[in-house]
Design goal:
Blueprint: H1 2-36, H2 42-57, H3 60-90, H4 95-111, H5 115-133, H6 136-174
């Protein structure tokens, strides 16, 4: 009798563990989507899911995995801001143009759901650069540089989150 009670307890532990892993995987997936579609704090969700998993698992492997994920996400966050900004400075895209793009992007998001974010950003950067440069061709070239910078930023952030996700997946699969 004790043996069967013990094995049903182990089965319940296994189900909770599997359910927790599935829940973490879903939160990580939502975080990855949140990086591409900037409506959710993608990196925070990915890090949070891995951190919760590490706390619940409470093993050496889980803590090492959390450390690796922290380094990867921290490095990608730093690079996400430094690399594109350096490129935009070389192209002489002003910070005020990016702020104008962000403001019109937010407004555009509510006027034209989801797609308005991109349309508003492009329009905001273009109008700010046009006011600054007084030349349509130069304003458009600056707008293209700003778009490339944003795409680079998203790509770097996504790469870091994917590498952290791979580290987590390796930990739950092989250890």
């Amino acid at each position: 009798m004790e043996c069967s009670a013990k094995s049903s307890w182990s089965l319940a532990d296994e189900l909770v563990s599997t359910g927790g892993i599935v829940l973490c995987a879903l939160v990580i997936a939502v975080g990855l989507v949140g990086i591409i579609v900037p409506l959710l704090p993608g990196v925070v969700l990915v890090f949070g899911a891995i951190a919760v998993w590490a706390v619940v698992e409470h093993t050496v492997v889980s803590w090492v995995t959390l450390g690796i994920a922290t380094v990867l996400l921290g490095a990608s966050t730093g690079i996400k801001y430094l690399w594109p900004m350096r490129r935009m400075r070389r192209a002489e895209v002003g910070s005020s143009s990016l702020v104008a793009g962000a403001v019109l992007g937010i407004i555009g998001f509510f006027v034209i759901p989801v797609l308005g974010l991109l349309v508003g950003f492009v329009l905001g950067v273009y109008l700010a650069e046009l006011a600054h440069r007084r030349n349509q061709r130069q304003a458009w070239a600056s707008t293209v540089h700003a778009l490339k910078g944003v795409a680079l930023s998203v790509g770097v952030e996504l790469a870091g989150a994917l590498l952290a996700t791979i580290a987590w997946a390796v930990a739950i699969t092989f250890f």
